[in-house]
Amino acid sequence: MELLRSLAITGTEEVLSISGLILLLAAGWGGDKASRAISIAAVAVLTVCAVLTVPALCHAAMGPGVSAWNGQFSGDAFAAFGKLLIYASAAVTLIIAPAFFERENAMRAEFPLLVLLAAMGMGMMVSATDTLALYIGLELNSLAAYVMASFLRSDERSAEAGLKYFVLGSLASGILLYGISLIYGFTGSTSFAGIHGALAGPLFMGATFGIVFVLAGLAFKVSAAPFHMWTPDVYEGAPTPVSTFFATAPKVAALALLMRVSLFAFGSQPGAWQQIVIFVALLSIVIGALGAIGQDNIKRLLAYSSINNVGFMLIGLACANQAGAAAMLVYLAIYVAMSVAGFVAVLMLRDADGAPVESIAAMAGLSKTRPALAWAIGAVMFSLAGIPPLFGFWGKFMVFQAAVQAGLLTLAAIGIAASVIGAFYYIKVVKVMFFDEAADVVTGQSDLAQRVLLFVSVVAISPLGWLINKPLGELAGRAAAALFHIA
């Protein structure tokens, strides 16, 4: 019975693995000509997984009843919240990827398979309640991501992005694994519940070093400063659909994993990691804002924006309470919508020959030549800056409110002041599009799928997005409550 229950709880991972193997056979049989059909099938698989995940979130699943494989895996509401964002982000990537790669004559049947395998690894990450399951899920995701970053083999930037990501990612994985070994050595357990109980007593110096190393390894995965150095280069060099994927799904998985490790495994010793998170949050906000000011490539600007937004989300984690976790999850969901809108808009920036346009200067006067696209990008920029009434404002407001309620007034004040710096480079892009002389470079046509996705995501971050504010808050609250339910 225990085996059957565990199999039922890990149903989405089984669907992804079995479907991945079947589609791998289809790819081997049909070759690259079957890549679009395989992509459609992969989107259908992700949709099925999302449907299977919804009940756990709606019913606020938590506790021993949703624990599987002897406590190594949890199918609770927190995991369900993260998986829904991951599956949605992966599906968006598969929808926009075929047209992009076909223009480059580089569409291969392996790409949707890599996305499915990465999604399975990320699902394990958000559900992991044991350091062994954590590491297996993280490496499964990372191995697929390294290949995806260098998918355009004829493009030197893509090859460089894949190599940098691989080298730095391997270093971060080593740091994380060393931290896990220290935690195991000083607590005698690999399970999060066991670590939580062991750390409730006196904190040994070796365990403190283990916590630091684990947080450092995970900080790389979320591209938080000072472990952010790979982000601008990888986002710029990777194919734009892959950059879209990196900015959304892996970010959700890594942040969710960081939350579960910090608030559950290390939750009995918040003083050991809270100051580290505060430092990383502030450094990410400042470096993300200052680093973006001098950028002339829109993808690099969005990379620094990602670092900046991670800093704001970590303010919620620094609160070390349920309100902060719920605020962080709300911000994360809004951030995914903003990132999808931003990178889909970048995909639509093409010249007359269909070549991608990434220079901000080439976007000059876009409001005169492509007004709908310019207004959409403007909405994304203002939302990322947290300017009301766009929905991005609510994410920042939630984490600042949680920080104030937790007594972190200085952190909230510094975060609010630093957000003004970030507004500068977002408004600069709007100024170029609406007030500079038209460069008349972006004249290429966009695909229907891109236009639909851009419309949906911009509506989600527009003032209309406030209509889902209450249900989103309720779902985030259920997910955060499951995270604090110690089995």
UniProtKB/TrEMBL annotation:
Its main location: membrane. GO terms for molecular function: NADH dehydrogenase (quinone) (non-electrogenic) activity; NADH dehydrogenase (ubiquinone) activity; quinone binding. It catalyses: a quinone + NADH + 5 H(+)(in) = a quinol + NAD(+) + 4 H(+)(out). Its EC number is 7.1.1.-. InterPro entries: NADH-Q_OxRdtase_suN/2 (IPR010096), ND/Mrp_TM (IPR001750). Residues 128-422 form the NADH:quinone oxidoreductase/Mrp antiporter transmembrane domain. The chain crosses the membrane at residues 6-26, 38-57, 77-97, 109-126, 132-153, 165-187, 199-220, 241-266, 272-294, 301-323, 329-349, 372-394, 406-427. GO terms for biological process: ATP synthesis coupled electron transport. It is a multi-pass membrane protein. It is an enzyme of class 7 (translocase). The keyword Cytoplasm does not apply. Keywords: Cell membrane, Membrane, NAD, Quinone, Translocase, Transmembrane, Transmembrane helix, Transport, Ubiquinone. It is found in: Cell membrane; Endomembrane system; Membrane. GO terms for cellular component: endomembrane system; plasma membrane. Belongs to the complex I subunit 2 family. NDH-1 is composed of 14 different subunits. Subunits NuoA, H, J, K, L, M, N constitute the membrane sector of the complex. NDH-1 shuttles electrons from NADH, via FMN and iron-sulfur (Fe-S) centers, to quinones in the respiratory chain. The immediate electron acceptor for the enzyme in this species is believed to be ubiquinone. Couples the redox reaction to proton translocation (for every two electrons transferred, four hydrogen ions are translocated across the cytoplasmic membrane), and thus conserves the redox energy in a proton gradient. This is NADH-quinone oxidoreductase subunit N. The lineage of its organism: Bacteria, Pseudomonadati, Pseudomonadota, Alphaproteobacteria, Sphingomonadales. The gene is nuoN.
